[in-house]
Amino acid sequence: MATTHSCCKSPYLQLALPLLCLMISTQTQATEEVGLITTDYFLSHESKEPFYREQNLDPNVVLHVREVVAAGTERTAGKDNKVLLFLHGGTFPGYVAFDLDYENVSMMRHFAKLGWDTFALDLEGYGQSTRPPIMDKPEQYPDSQAPIGLDVTLANVERTVDFIRDLRGVEKVHLLGWSSAAMAEAPLYAIQQPEKVAKLILYASNYLGKGKSEEERRQQDAKREAEKNRYGTPGDLQRWIKLGTKEEYLIPGAFEAYVEAHLASDPKSADLGGRVRAPWGRFIGWPEPHFDAGSIKVPTLVIRGESDTLASRDDNQQLLDDLGSTEKQYVEIEQAGHMIQFEKNNTAFYRSIAEFLEPTK
């Protein structure tokens, strides 16, 4: 049995709660993951999203943060410097990306078994965190900017890191960013607040961009501003294949389990005909390269699957060269694509991360 705690039966009741959420309800559910505790926190947060103030709406939102930890480890992980925060990509919410309840797909459960206190954040506009009303009816707000820009998501990360630091009594957390988060929030946060980051993992990152001209990027941004929402179709396996996750790489049944979980994460997925929403604002105004790698000083691991089409080998090796970190590593996982945690070779992937986090003495 594993224990699942919820800070509140409905996250929207949590808007005025203090930094450490009150435990209002506790549920115990049957699971094969013996000895693991899963806690869902809903953190009160004053959003930087300008839409709320523009429309004279209350800017107080909730951020969903999931924790998975081995029973008893939550009392020791802090002093052992074993606290790890996962940041998700462009379409998956954090708990779907990192805690899918299927075989050994959950990175959070894997590292919890290794003694880590693991956390995953849903950025605003994703999963169980608050979505602004513009995401429900984007056509009603043509003059508003696309929601959830990088200033909003970076504030989400700051809120979550500070919550974890207070919760577990640590000065620094280890930070893993996947895909879009490895191009934006994870490196940018490590640049801005290195004193709070122990080690940084950039997984499936595209660093240099796609080589578009300034005018091409401007046109792309204008299109995204007009659309407001990014719509994805979880059931489209071709999207994964185009990113280098070949069908034969996948753990049997993992893609189907993912589709079910991702659809369930968006309450409007049925109305949208099997699509899910993500905010376009997060992707507008990105420079190329996407961040100043030379300003990253914390120990950093760059890791990719050898078939990943978004995170190319040349791009990631350039990232490694440009990093300002004195301790930096590059690892490439054979027979793997962009979605390694869902793939058969995920054990090699997990092992490489574990060896970086805790080098063998």
UniProtKB/TrEMBL annotation:
InterPro entries: AB_hydrolase_1, AB_hydrolase_fold, Carboxylesterase_BioH. Residues 1-30 form the signal peptide. The keyword Lyase does not apply. Pfam families: Abhydrolase_1. GO terms for molecular function: hydrolase activity. This is Alpha/beta hydrolase fold protein. Gene3D superfamilies: alpha/beta hydrolase. It comes from the Bacteria. It comes from Thiocapsa marina 5811. Residues 83-344 form the AB hydrolase-1 domain. Keywords: Hydrolase, Signal. The keyword Membrane does not apply.
